[in-house]
Fold:
Amino acid sequence: MPKLFVISGPSGVGKTTIVRAILPRIRELEFSVSCTTRPPRPDEQDGREYYFISPERFEELLREGAFLEHAWVYGHHYGTLRAEVERRLARGKSVLLDIDTQGARSVYLRRRELGFPVRFIFILPPSREELRRRLASRRSESPEEMERRLALAWRETEAGMWFDYLVVNRYLEEAIAWVAGLIRLELE
Ligand code: 5GP
Structure:
């Protein structure tokens, strides 16, 4: 039976890198493209990483009940389209979500009404220092802002306690292998 896999973890932990690496390795697994109001980065394509939409359109979709979950992350809206997920499950594919910890929590609270099995995978940083290094390497911002984000991201590691699986991203290749391995086992 196809399943919904929710991958989450603190910002900067490397979940997007892990997701990108496992998708081509598991044929029966598809990525659910989320909506966001943040502008695309240079290497991103509309409809591939995200559907890049206006705040007005986001509001409209929210009012229509189009989202399975949604959250406000670092100043932008993000949401998982119910149709993206259900369309794939209906074709017999399993679905992968890469979402923040608030979004994961709201899927968790609603898991019994969804009508399909959901598994929660949490990615942890090996240490606070390593999380700081990773956050610093991908954003250029003031030291105060950096400390604020680090504090927030570190606090998010506590959200992992109720997940089905915890994976420490110490060595990227190992973390990828663990996540791919546990998804394969879940799909057997
Ligand atoms: P980024 O803007 O760097 O792509 O993503 C920022 C954060 O938003 C990441 O933690 C990512 O997992 C999360 N995110 C992406 N799509 C969604 C979504 O549909 N819902 C929620 N709740 N979070 C999302």
In short: The mean pLDDT is 94. The radius of gyration is 16 Å.
